[in-house]
Amino acid sequence: MRLKDKVVIVTGAGQGIGKGIALSLAKEGAKVVVSDITEKTNEVVKEIQDSGGEAIAAKLDVTNPKDAEGVAKLAIEKFGRIDILVNNAGIYPMKSFPELTEQEWDKVLSINLKGTFNCTKAVVPKMIEQKSGNIINIASIAGAVIGYQTLVHYSASKAGVLGFTRSAALDLAQYKIRVNAIAPGAVNTPGTKSVGEEAMKQVEQTIPLKRLGQPEDIANLVVFLASEDSSYITGQMIVIDGGLTIQ
């Protein structure tokens, strides 16, 4: 119960990594605002409540600043404060650069990077008032550590998330608000399954630990960064990829 009574907003929490993060935070005693653009949030909230946790669902389009402000307001009205924000919402459609359109570029940057800005901007006033806060951004090894073919837009957005994390950490440290990022490698989610089973088996063989990451692996690191166990860490990005990028 390292996060007992802490109030957390998780974006993109309807499935995959976001769902795993929401469940793990709730298990540690946090009150979770499960937000997503889909209605899958209701299922996640029910799972948390059935396990004895406390959670509410919130519809959120991270590209819309008003939506982000609305979710922050909901968290404050329901729970009185905002302790932690996990910026997890993101998309990664694959497209070779020569075929990439301006609209596809704008969509990925708008969700992955501007969405991080919008949601952080929405919660920071309350965190400044509290003189405490914790923001955890989900980046990626793509862009933030290495390059990937067919992911120019995604890689650019995640490199941006890393730059945002470092600079925001400097701006917000005076208010006792910490800002960190996590860079996952290949993780077993509904999104990666769409790539195909055979392709993912090949990816597994390139990972020194010879397995894909699970949402719970990322969630465990989020719990650490969200807790007081990491109280002297800010402005950092932690890679969690089974050793893929050390080869």
Describe how the helices and strands are arranged:
Elements: E1 7-10, H1 16-27, E2 31-36, H2 41-50, E3 54-59, H3 65-79, E4 84-87, H4 102-130, E5 133-138, H5 141-144, H6 152-172, E6 177-184, H7 190-193, H8 197-206, H9 215-226, E7 237-240
Which stretches of 5+ consecutive residues score pLDDT under 50?
none
Count of domain modules: 1
> What is the CATH top level name?
Alpha Beta
Q: What is the C-alpha radius of gyration, as a whole number of Å?
A: 17 Å
- CATH topology term: Rossmann fold
**What number is the mean pLDDT?**
96
Most strands sheet: 7 strands, parallel
Number of strands: 7
- Please trace the helix and strand order, writing H or E for each element: EHEHEHEHEHHEHHHE
Name of the CATH superfamily: NAD(P)-binding Rossmann-like Domain
- Overall geometric form: globular
Helix content: 40-55%
* Count of runs of 4 or more consecutive helical residues: 9
| CATH architecture descriptor name | 3-Layer(aba) Sandwich
Q: Enumerate the strands of the largest sheet in spatial order, edge to edge or round the barrel.
A: 3-2-1-4-5-6-7
- End-to-end separation: 37 Å
| Helical/strand content category | alpha/beta
Strand content: 15-25%
Task: Describe the protein in words.
The structure is a single chain. The chain is an alpha/beta fold. The chain has a single domain, classed as 3-Layer(aba) Sandwich (Rossmann fold). The chain contains 9 helices and 7 strands; from the N terminus they run βαβαβαβαβααβαααβ. Strands 3-2-1-4-5-6-7 form a 7-stranded parallel sheet, sandwiched between helices. α2 links the parallel β2 and β3. It is globular, with a radius of gyration of 17 Å. The N and C termini lie far apart (37 Å).
